[in-house]
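Researcher: Quick test of sequence recovery. Tokens follow.
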């Protein structure tokens, strides 16, 4: 076994030990097929008020502009599918936001992984990325053979569906690379048919500015009244396109204790949410991604649903 294969194997073994679902590796090179797609999406203003999506266009497509001298992109998946979900009489939170904010959980694991690489292999430079820099996570994961991009624009894997986070290490070490996998969406259009706001405008294209996740998390002003009655009780994020996807029948509960919800969260009813105080918000979402929308944002969303 040559060094590239040996090092790749070492990284994948350590990733598994750290609790990652899977790990794939691809060469750090310009994302040629993504460039026109991203440009077209931005030109159509499908990013809405997410101005940051238009920033650092070059860096999004070329990892060597993010990490100088980089040779490899190590993509990792971490399962967040919960064992239990909210009570039926409740306003809904996207499942990824049940527990501790994933940025913290994954960043720690990535730091450990990079440290192990440096200890076992030697002087390796690189950076860890968790959805907080201009990196096209899904494109890299697909390029690394971890799945294919479904019609709802999420990464899909035959064995485990799509309820997982994607993260990367971009490093200056040459490794053995994985090949891409094939698309298994076939003729299925369940995600397109089920989207409450018709945000999936065509297969593989999501108009971000029409997505419930955008309205409930990213949008800072009032939600447009034209969308009244279309949110199906989603107050933070939306899982509809993933919930209806046939591949998610293979989802298994995660084993990360930090992703377990606050004990009160799953039993809160619509009335509890409507009466939520800032103190309760702070207590239930102390380390949660929900803090991003702030108490004022969450109450705005709840009021929009109940009016």
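Model:
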């Amino acid at each position: 076994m040559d060094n590239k294969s040996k090092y790749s194997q070492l990284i994948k073994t350590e990733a598994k030990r750290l609790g990652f679902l899977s790990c794939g590796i691809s060469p750090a090179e310009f994302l040629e097929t993504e460039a026109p797609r991203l440009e077209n999406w931005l030109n159509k203003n499908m990013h809405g008020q997410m101005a940051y999506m238009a920033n650092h266009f070059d860096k999004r497509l070329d990892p060597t502009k993010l990490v100088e001298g980089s040779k490899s992109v190590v993509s990792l998946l971490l399962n967040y599918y919960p064992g239990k979900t909210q009570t039926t009489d409740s306003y809904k939170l996207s499942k990824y936001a049940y527990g501790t904010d994933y940025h913290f959980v994954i960043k720690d694991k990535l730091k450990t992984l990079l440290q192990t690489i440096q200890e076992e292999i030697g002087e390796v430079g690189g950076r860890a990325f968790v959805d907080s820099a201009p990196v096209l996570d899904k494109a890299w994961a697909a390029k690394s053979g971890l799945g294919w991009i479904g019609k709802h624009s999420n990464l899909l894997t035959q064995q485990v569906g799509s309820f997982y986070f994607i993260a990367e290490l971009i490093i200056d070490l040459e490794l053995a690379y994985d090949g891409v996998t094939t698309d298994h969406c076939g003729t299925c259009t369940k995600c397109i048919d089920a989207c409450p706001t018709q945000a999936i405008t065509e297969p593989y294209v999501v108009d971000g500015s029409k997505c419930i996740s955008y309205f409930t998390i990213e949008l800072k002003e009032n939600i447009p009244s034209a969308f009244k009655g279309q949110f199906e009780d989603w107050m933070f994020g939306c899982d509809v396109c993933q919930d209806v996807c046939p591949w998610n029948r293979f989802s298994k509960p995660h084993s990360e204790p930090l992703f377990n919800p606050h004990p009160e969260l799953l039993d809160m009813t619509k009335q509890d949410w409507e009466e939520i105080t800032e103190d309760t918000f702070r207590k239930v979402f102390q380390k949660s991604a929900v803090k991003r929308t702030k108490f004022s944002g969450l109450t705005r969303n709840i009021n929009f649903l109940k009016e």
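The chain has eleven helices and ten strands.
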